[in-house]
Amino acid sequence: KKIPKNSLLSMPSYSSTCPKCTLIQSDPMACLCELCGASLLPQVAKKRRPLPPSTNIARTQTTTKKRKANDPKQRSILSFFRKQGEPMQMVSSDLSEGASTHPFDGKDIHSESAIAPTQHLPPASDDDQDFHAPTQPFQEEHENTAAVAPATQLYNSDTDDDQNEHDVKTKADLKLSIAPTQLYDDNDDKSKTEANLSITPTQLYNDDDDDKLITDATVINQEEPMDLLHDKFESRRGLQQLVSDEGSVYYRVIASTLSAVSSTRSRLSKERALVNAFSWLNSAQCEAEEFEATAYLLAPVKDSQTGGHRLQPDFISPEGGLGLGWRSVIEQAILDATGCSRSELTNARKKASDSAEAAAMLLKRLGTRRWCFGGKPRTLTVTEVRDNLLKLGLMNGPGANSRKSKLLTSLFGRATPNEMAWLIRTCNAHMSCGISLEASVIPALAQALNPRCPTQEVRAAYARRPDVRCVIDALLQSNNNNDDAISILKNIGVSFGIPLQPMLATAGNSIQHALRDFGSDQILAEHKYDGQRAQIHYADGTTTMYSRKLDEITNKYPQLVHILNSKLGNKCIILDAEIVAENTDGEGGQVFQALTSKRDDVSLVVFDLLWFDNRCICDLPLFERRRLLIEEVLPIESSSIRLAKSIQIDRNSLAIVQKELMHAVAANCEGLVLKQLDSKYEISGVGIRSKAWLKLKKDYIEGMVDSLDLVPIGGWRGSGRKSNWISPILMATYDQETQELACVSRVMSGFSDEFYAAFTKRVLGPKGIKATIENDISDLNLLIRNGPAPGVNTSENCEFWFKPGLVWEIRAADITLSPTHRSAMGIFHAKRGLSLRFPRFIRERPDKRLEQATSSSQFANFYRQQQSRGDTMTLSISNAKPLDDDEKETPLSSKPKRRILHEDGEQVARSLLVYDNDAELSPPLPLPSSTVVAEEDGDVGCVEQRRLILLGADES
DNA sequence: GCTGGCTGCCC
DNA sequence: ATTCTGC
DNA sequence: GCAGAATGGGCAGCCAGC
C-alpha cells in the first residue's frame, strides 16, 4: 500500500529496509515491502482489538469505562503495591485521595509516583538515556541554558523596524519559551518566522530540564531528532517514547504535538504535526480508545466562544465544563506542585507569554530534584489524563475546589514542564494554539489513517454524528481492510437520539446582495426569532432537547417538554426550532433577556423537520420538509407550539423583503432568514455555515439600528494575540451638566490591529505596553496613573484609566437593562443602568467634542424607542398597508410610501432610509440613531415630541 | 443562611 | 454573538 | 473564504466565606 506522493499531508518517512527479507525498498514512502509484503511500519507487540461490526450503531459509553481489573496494567499496579506493602488506595484512576500536599514530601511523592515502575523501561540501548535517573539530582539549572526550545513568541506591537530588531535580540537572549503558544508576529517579515521554524527541533526529547541533564550523550544520539514539523520520523527509538508497553499513549505526545502546532502559523505545518502524531499511534497499532483520547486532548476546548471543555461527545454528559477556575483551583495546584509562592508565580507571569508558561518556568526551576524520590518523568498517559479531567468535572459539593486542586497537583507532579504547561492551558480552556477538533484534528486523523479520505467527507460524517469514536472506528476499519474510506464514512448517518450539527445561516449585510447571490428563485423569508436554538428528538411521549452546541437542555424547559410530550402523540421526529419567551409583560422588547430567566411560559417556534417516518429527511428539499412539518406534525392544538412566520418570495422581491424585515423587527424578531426552498438540510461540518440560508439581521443593515457616540474611559491589557495592546476598552456616556462619565459597555470588537497599536502608544507612550512591564509609566497625554478621571461612574476596575476627550462611534444590536453598567441608572430601575448587546467599534469621531458625546438621557431615550419599537413600527406599517396575511397577494400601491428617519438635534439628519414600494430604492444611508416616525402621506406617528426633518423623494 | 464571585452556556 | 487577520 | 482568536452582555447554578 503506497501513500500518494502528491498528497499534501504525506506520511512521515519510514525505514526503507524490510525487517523480514531485508530488501531495500525503491520507494522510501512505501509502507509494505515490495518483495514479501511485510509491513515496514515499526511494530509493537500489542494487537489492536477487533473493531465493532458496524459503525452505524448506537454508541456505547466506552469512554468512561474504567479499565478492568484483569487489565495487565492494572494488575501490575496492584502487584506493585503488594510488594511495597503500601495501602491499595492509590490506583491510576483515583489520584485525588491521599495525594501529596507538598512536592518535597518524599513519602508522598514516592507513593504518588508509584505507578511509574509499572512502565517497564525499554531494553537498554543508546536511546534509553532519556529514562535514566539523573546523576546529579540537585543540580540547579540556569534558565537560559535550560531552555532548549527557542522562544518563538513574537509579540511585537511595534510597527517601526528598529523596535522589532530589538525584540528579536531580546527573544534570542532570553530563550524563555518552554511551550510556545501561537506565534503572533505583527511584522510582515516572513524570513523571521522561517528562521524560527528551522531551528525548532521540536521537543519530544529535549524540552525539559530532566532531559537536559542527560546532556552530551543524548545530544549525540539526537542527530536526527524527532521533528513534528518536518516529517522526520526515526522509528527505531520512536515508539517506545510514545507508547507504553501496554499500548497506552503518553501525554507527552500531546504536549510535543501541541508545542509543534503552536510554533508555526502555517496551517499546513500544523496539520502535518497532527497527522504525524496520529501516524505514530497507527504505527504502534494503538486501540481506538487511545486515538479517541488523543484527539480530544489535542483540542479539549469546546469552542472559543464559551471556553468549555470537551473530552467526550457533548451529548454524553450534560455538564461539559470542568469547573476549574484559575483563582479557585488551578493557581493553588500550581503552587503546590512547584512549591512556589504566589508572588513568585506573579513575577514569572511577567516574563512569560501566558500563565501556563510561567508555571512551567517555575517547575523547570525545580529541576530534577522532584524525580529523586523514585518518580519517573513522563509517565502520564492520555487516557489517564482524560479520565482524571473528567473526574474533576464530576467533583462537586463542599470542598470540591480543594479536592480538585489536589488531584490537579498530583497530575502536575508527574508532568514535565512542557506537559504541565499544556495541562494548565487545558484546564484554563484556553489552548490558543490554532487548531480545533472539528476543523483540524479530525481531518488529520483521517489523513493519518487513510490518506485517500477527503477532508470534506470526515468532517461531514462527524457533523452527522458528532462522536469522535464513531469516526475513528470507521477510519480504523478502512485502514485495516484497505477499504474505501468514503463508503465507510457514508455509513455514519444521522441517528435518532443523537444530536446532529444544526444547519447554520451565513450572514448577509444587504438585501440586494443576498437576493443576487441566491442560486434559486424560490425563496422563503422566515422570521428570525430571538431565542435559543433547540433540536428536539421526540419519540412516543418522550422529548429530548439539545442546544445549538449539542448540549442536552431537556431539563431547562420542563413545561415545554411536558406540552410536547402530551401533544405530539405517537410520532418519532426530530424538529429544528427556536425557544422564545414572548409574553414579556412590562419588559417590552427584552425577549431574549426574558428567556434566560424564565423556564416556564416559553413557546416553541418550529421551522424544520429532520426526521420523519423513521428516517432522516435532511436530503429532502426544504419545501418537502416544510410540507411534512405543516401537514403531519404541526396540526396540534397548542398555543405554545407553532410554525415560524414566513413568506415565499422570488429573487426580484427586494421591496417585499425590506418590508418583511420591518415586520420582523416590529415583532421583536432579530431579522429574517432567507432560505432557498429547494435546498437540503446541509450538514457539511461543525461550524460550517451554509449559503442556502442567509440571515439578515437588522443591525447588519446600516441605518437600521442605534449607534452611540461614546467616550473611552479605561481599559485592560489584552491577552494572546492582543497582549501588547489595550483591549477591551471601557466606554461611557457623558453628561455635560454633571460632567458624569457613566460606563456603558466594554468593547473589543471592530478595532483593527493597526488601531490598537496606535491607540496603545497614544495612551502608554512610545514604549507601548512594555512601559507597564518595566514600570516605566507616568501620566501621559491620555493616561491617568492613579485611578479614574473625575466624574467616572463605574464598578469596573480598569488597569489603565484615560483622560476623557475622545469620542468613538459604537454600534450595537440592542440596548439592555444592565446589572453592572451605570449609565442611566435609576431611570428605569433603581439598581440597573443601560448597556449594549453585541457592542462593536465603528470609527473614531474626531469631529465630535466631549460635549457632543451621547448623554445618559439620550441613551435613555434610545432605550425608550427600542421598548416601543413594536408599537411604532406597527403604527407606520398599518398606516401604509394592512398587515393581513393576504397582503402579499394584494397589488402594490403605486403611490410611494416612505419611512423617514430622523435625528434629534440641530443638525440635519445625517441619514435616512427610504422604503419604497416602487422598484427604485435609495440605498440606506448612515444613521446614528433612528426611529421610524412618519409616512410621506402626512400620517405622523411620534414616539416622542421631536423635531422632524422630512426629506422628499427628490432631495438627496 | 446569605452574599459575592466564579464558571458555563446562551445569545 | 461580532469582528479582524493570516493562510 | 475558511479557521481561529479575542472577547461583548447577562443569566442560573454552584461554591466559599462570612
CATH architecture group name of the domain at 505-700 = 2-Layer Sandwich
Give the strand content.
5-15%
Instruction: Determine the structural class based on helices, strands and strand pairing.
Output: alpha+beta
Tell me about the largest β-sheet.
8 strands, mixed
Keywords: ATP-binding, DNA damage, DNA recombination, DNA repair, DNA replication, Ligase, Nucleotide-binding
Family: Belongs to the ATP-dependent DNA ligase family.
InterPro entries: ATP-dep_DNA_ligase (IPR050191), DNA_ligase_ATP-dep (IPR000977), DNA_ligase_ATP-dep_C (IPR012309), DNA_ligase_ATP-dep_cent (IPR012310), DNA_ligase_ATP-dep_CS (IPR016059), DNA_ligase_ATP-dep_N (IPR012308), DNA_ligase_N_sf (IPR036599), NA-bd_OB-fold (IPR012340)
Biased composition (Polar residues): 90-99, 865-879
